[in-house]
Specification:
Rossmann fold, 304 residues, 16 strands, alpha/beta, globular, 8-stranded mixed sheet, two-stranded parallel sheet
């Protein structure tokens, strides 16, 4: 079975993907700030600031998956934080590009994460991979810079699938974990008027998309990593209430309060991004969880 090197392998998607790949029989390696060759997923050191990377990891890999990047919603968006969000994605990609070019044998594919933040906030418009980047949005600016760096790898002729990840649903992190908190107090909270579109995806399905990008040699270019049926924020919270099946009062979190508290980072919850999954389905990908209610019940049952 092929060897897969993952950058960003300890994050929400990376850790779940690593487990799925290892279960399928792949050898999984991680890039990390500290080397640990005895770890469950042997870790090889890299340092973006110093532009260093353990070449042995890159040389061993048949495929590289890059999920690396500073968390979008981890800290308030100061100018310094914005620079880090962009540089962590661009610099990791370019460092990997240089290492790939030093390999003695060709890499089979470089697979990169991206994000539907590329589209910015577009109201009710149904967005496809051919639509341009959003304007006046930091999310769109950061993802555009990221994809431009990936394009430098694609320009070498290497197969380079890019998956624009939507709102990943998991009880172990991300949006769903935070949405579950008010339910402990018998509340169900949506943001503002709740009409903004959320293009969600079950964590199993987003990981299966990256596995498809490994297995399917026709899989190339940019794909939206979202389920077939986006939901408005308020409707998604209502579906979560149904899945939990416990009393909860559906209440709004006022937009002005969140914007005062979060600043520009509030765009993460208020941007309306209604994204199509048609292209990835046409490429042969079959969703295990196309239905939101079934996805939520599965996640809550399995606690993943």
């Amino acid at each position: 079975m092929p060897t897969i090197l993952i950058a960003g392998g300890t994050g929400l998607v990376g850790s779940h993907l690593s487990q799925m790949l290892q279960t399928a029989g792949h050898t999984v390696l991680h890039l990390s700030r500290k080397a640990d060759h005895k770890a469950k997923y042997p870790a090889f050191a890299w340092d973006l600031a110093k532009k260093t990377i353990d070449q042995a990891a890159v040389d061993r890999a048949d495929y590289i998956i890059n999920l690396a990047g500073a968390g979008i919603a981890d800290e308030r968006w100061t100018d310094e934080r914005k620079r880090l969000i962009i540089s962590s994605r661009v610099d990791s990609t370019l460092l990997l590009k240089a290492a790939i070019e030093r390999r003695p044998t060709p890499l089979r594919a470089f697979i990169s994460a991206s994000a539907i933040g590329y589209y910015g906030s577009r109201g009710d418009q149904l967005l496809t991979e051919t639509d341009p980047a959003g304007e006046g949005s930091f999310l769109a600016e950061s993802v555009t810079a990221w994809e431009q760096a990936v394009a430098e790898i694609a320009a070498t002729g290497l197969r380079t699938p890019v998956i624009r990840i939507g709102v990943v649903l998991s009880t172990r992190g991300g949006a769903l974990e935070k949405m579950l908190i008010p339910f402990r107090f018998f509340n169900a909270t949506y943001f503002g008027n709740g009409r903004q579109w959320m293009s969600w995806v079950h964590i199993d399905d987003i990981c299966r998309m990256f596995i498809e990008a490994i297995d399917n040699e026709q899989f190339n270019g940019t794909y939206n990593g979202v389920a077939p049926q986006p939901f408005r924020n308020r409707d998604l919270v209502f579906e979560l209430k149904k899945a939990i099946d416990k009393p909860a009062l559906l209440l709004p979190a006022p937009e002005f309060v969140l914007r005062v508290a979060m600043g520009e980072m509030a765009d993460v919850v208020f941007d309306s991004t209604r994204v199509s999954s048609k292209k990835i389905e046409a490429a042969g990908f079959q969703f295990q969880f196309p239905d939101l209610q079934a996805a939520l019940r599965d996640l809550l049952r399995r606690k993943i």
